[in-house]
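can u do me a favor
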C-alpha cells in the first residue's frame, strides 16, 4: 500500500503541475486537470489510511505473537481446535 500511495502522490503532483503550467505562461489554468487532482488526492488519502491500518495490524501481530499471513495454503489443523492444551512435556 505504501508503494501505491507513493505513486498516487506523484500523480497528484503531476496534476498540480498540469494545472499550474499555463499560469506561468500567462494563460488561463487548465481546468481539466482538476479531475486528476481530485482523483489522485482522494486515492492518496485512501491508500494512506490502508497503509496505516496495515502498519497497525503488523504491530498488533508482533505484540500477540501471531504468525504473518501468507498465501501458501498450509494450515496447522491443531491450531483450529479450541481449548487444546499447548504445553509439551
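np, heres the sequence
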Amino acid at each position: 500500500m505504501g508503494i501505491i500511495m507513493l505513486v498516487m502522490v506523484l500523480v497528484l503532483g503531476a496534476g498540480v503541475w498540469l494545472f499550474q503550467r499555463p499560469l506561468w505562461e500567462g494563460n488561463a489554468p487548465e481546468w481539466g486537470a482538476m479531475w486528476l487532482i481530485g482523483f489522485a488526492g482522494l486515492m492518496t488519502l485512501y491508500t494512506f489510511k490502508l497503509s496505516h491500518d496495515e502498519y497497525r495490524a503488523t504491530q498488533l501481530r508482533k505484540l500477540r505473537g501471531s504468525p504473518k499471513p501468507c498465501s501458501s495454503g498450509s494450515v496447522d489443523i491443531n491450531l483450529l481446535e479450541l481449548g487444546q492444551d499447548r504445553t509439551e512435556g
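The chain has a mean pLDDT of 84. hope that helps!!
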